[in-house]
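so im writing up the methods section and need the NAD(P)H-hydrate epimerase record in one place, dumping it here so i stop losing it
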Amino acid sequence: MEITVDQMYQIENNGHAMGFLKKFMMENAGAAAVRRLVEKFDVTSKNILIFVGMGNNGGDGLVMARHLSGYGAIVTIQLLGSPDKIKTEESSWNWSILKKMPSVKLLSGDNLHFDFIPDVIIDAILGTGISGEIREPYVSAINYINNSSCFKFAVDVPSGLDPQTGETANIFVKSDMTVTFHKMKQGIPKRKDLTGELYAEKIGIPPEAEEGVL
Ligand SMILES: NC(=O)C1=CN([C@@H]2O[C@H](COP(=O)(O)OP(=O)(O)OC[C@H]3O[C@@H](n4cnc5c(N)ncnc54)[C@H](O)[C@@H]3O)[C@@H](O)[C@H]2O)[C@H](O)CC1
Ligand SMILES: [K+]
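--- predicted struct ---
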């Protein structure tokens, strides 16, 4: 069953109100995404570059970084903004854990020059919160991703694709694999040319959180 983006936010809020906090959803989302990635790709000693936006899509990317480090990957995060401008509590919480993990390299701002060639790029820039045309520094990050020939993995939805309508913004990521969360959003499967292999993974939200929504 496909759901709307509005329904997803309502379900998420209901689950949170039940006590299944968004930070737990985020943890499960990042862990489920990593499970799919490592099934496909041996990440041991591989260079993984994660572009992280300032909302909760970025937060999922931060969770992935921690898990991938545990799998022996060499992880670099490029936060697309300043750490003090991270927009949500759960994403900031994950950033603060990573600050205690020298195994993960943390970069921030809009300087997109790296001293390595990534084997995998993770797009955790924008998810269901997208609105309007893509702005900098996200535009440059999306260009960087699309100009790279490595394996590309999209968190929840390729950034720049509207998960409700399936329409694209001025610029958008073309990925090899996409993992969306809880249930498929209506617009995503319309653009399999952008998602690559597409999966919807459960993230522990109680089914009761759907009551009155679906
Ligand atoms: N579905 C779930 O149960 C869960 C989903 N999770 C992940 O959270 C994101 C949605 O997070 P949200 O913070 O609402 O939105 P985004 O991260 O997509 O982005 C919002 C952020 O981006 C800025 N922005 C919006 N449009 C643009 C634009 N065109 N150009 C530049 N910047 C833009 C805006 O200002 C906001 O700050 C969902 O996709 C999942 O990945 C959670 O982990 C919890 C479980
Ligand atoms: K994304």
